[in-house]
Structures are given as structure tokens and as C-alpha cells.
Design goal:
With about 270 residues, this protein is of the alpha/beta class. Helix content is about 40%, strand content about 20%. The structure holds zinc ion.
Length: about 270
């Protein structure tokens, strides 16, 4: 045993999505993390390996509908399947939970309300594709049409698998809802934006402070790149707004990590 001071180490793996079974590609990551977790524990450090099912999103809603069950029934079944598979492969989580939990709702609400009260949340109205048959707003991946660059048919609303072009759903030719086949309508909806720029100095001090590789810090800098709104067309602004919205939603979903970490007896970032 070394004389290394005892460290508090909190680790996780990407949260598996709760719309289907664990596959072998998932397991590579969980087993590698498990090996590292066991190694650190054997060295005498305090190490917590926490994870959870990511139980929110349109694909879950659609999968449940296809099976004729509720989303809650689907994620409950998938959670049992995931836990059984992880146990069969001896993946030793210190806590495994779900983003669909009262604790996570409490944590996400707390984070949101504190940011809102401090003026770090902005509300804007943006145009978004709406399926008039299913009566739901459509994420980019649920709109299909012809690529605006090369004309390839049956492409998703965010990028073309034939030519690799990226674009906004508004640019797709002959767009259709992937859910119902209906022509999407443009409808206004209110969105809440986290003002990342308010924390730019603090975050950059951390990303450039020796905690991260330069390549990772460079990638994260993309989040701070902003152009004056006057330079942007309404479509470009909507596309950026959508990207930001998705990131904020993912960020809140990922804050589900906090709750299992809390259960395991350590604070986030500890
Ligand atoms: Zn294309």
C-alpha cells in the first residue's frame, strides 16, 4: 500500500437510456469504470460509483405508446432489466437509481429555482415544429424530409446521413412528422434558457485551471461562442435556441446524478 493521502472520488458512467436493454457496447463502459472503481477502493480511497437510468424523453414516450403501456410502466420494467444485467456482469455500483425519482425532481427544482431567482434564467418564445395529429412538439430527430443540401430523401431534421450536412428542421424540404407522417406546423412555445454566459469567467478559470486536457477545454469553449443576435436570421436563431434548449434539458436530466451521489453519502463534485 502506498502513502498516498486518502482521496474522496465520485465517478459515474453515461446514464443508460430507459427505452431498451443494455447492449454489449454499454457494458464496455460500465465494466471499465467498475474495474477502476474497484482499483481505487483497493488502494484505500473513498470511491463511490453511482449511476441511474435516464428515464425522460420523447423516445420513451413513443416506445411506451407502441407497446400500449404508460411511460412509467416502461421505465419500471426497463429499470429491472438493467439492474439484472448489471448484476449478472458484477458491475458494483454503490448506488443505482433513476432520473424519474422524487429526489431528482427536488434537486432539479432547487437548481432551477435558485438560478431563476438569481436572474440566470431567461424566457423566450420560439417557433417549433408541431405535429397536429399527435398534438405534440417535435424534437429535431422526429422530423424527416429531404436534405436541403443534396436532396437525399428520408433524412432527419438535424443532419443528413447521405452528405453529412447539418441544418435546422426549418430547412428540410417536404418535412413530415416521423410519429404520424403529418406535415409539421410551426407553432410558438415558451422556452427557458440558462444564461451560461453569467458563469463564463468562473467556468473558464476552472476548465483552463489544470483540471482538464487542453483538447477538452477547447471543446467546451464552443459553449461560450456567441454571435450578436443582429447577425442571425430568425431561422438560425431558432436553431441555436433549440440547441441551447436541448443542452439545458440534458443538463437538468443529468443532474439526476446528484441524487444517487447524495444517497451514496457524498456531495456532487466531491
Ligand atoms: Zn444531404
Amino acid at each position: 500500500m502506498t502513502d498516498t493521502p486518502k482521496r474522496d472520488i465520485l465517478i459515474t458512467s453515461a446514464l443508460p437510456y430507459a427505452n431498451g436493454p443494455i447492449h454489449i457496447g454499454h457494458l464496455v463502459e460500465y465494466i471499465q469504470t467498475d474495474i477502476w472503481s474497484r482499483f481505487q477502493k483497493m488502494r484505500g480511497h473513498n470511491c463511490w460509483y453511482v449511476c441511474a437510468d435516464d428515464a425522460h424523453g420523447t423516445p420513451i414516450m413513443l416506445k411506451a405508446r407502441a407497446e400500449g403501456i404508460t411511460p412509467e410502466q416502461l421505465i419500471a420494467r426497463v429499470a429491472e432489466e438493467h439492474k439484472a444485467d448489471f448484476a449478472a456482469f458484477r458491475v458494483g455500483f454503490d448506488n443505482y437509481h433513476s432520473t424519474h425519482s422524487p429526489e431528482n425532481e427536488q434537486c432539479a427544482t432547487l437548481i432551477y429555482e435558485r438560478n431563476r431567482d438569481a436572474g440566470h434564467i431567461a424566457r423566450r418564445t420560439i417557433d417549433q415544429a408541431y405535429d397536429p395529429v399527435e398534438q405534440m412538439f417535435l424534437p429535431d430527430r422526429f422530423i424527416k424530409g429531404e436534405c436541403p443540401k443534396c436532396g437525399a430523401p428520408d433524412q432527419y431534421g438535424d443532419n443528413c446521413e447521405a452528405c453529412g450536412a447539418s441544418y435546422s428542421p426549418a430547412e428540410l424540404k417536404n418535412p413530415r412528422s416521423a410519429v404520424s407522417g403529418a406535415v409539421p406546423e410551426n407553432r410558438e412555445s415558451d422556452h427557458y434558457f440558462f444564461k451560461l454566459g453569467d458563469f463564463e469567467a468562473m467556468l473558464k478559470a476552472w476548465t483552463r485551471g489544470g483540471s482538464l486536457q487542453d483538447q477538452v477545454a477547447n471543446k467546451l469553449d464552443e459553449w461560450f461562442e456567441a454571435r450578436p443576435a443582429a447577425e442571425l436570421t430568425p431561422q438560425a436563431l431558432a436553431a441555436i435556441a433549440e440547441q441551447v434548449r436541448v443542452r439545458v434539458l440534458r443538463w437538468f436530466a443529468r443532474s439526476g446524478l446528484i441524487e444517487p451521489a447524495d444517497r451514496a453519502g457524498c456531495s456532487p463534485g466531491g
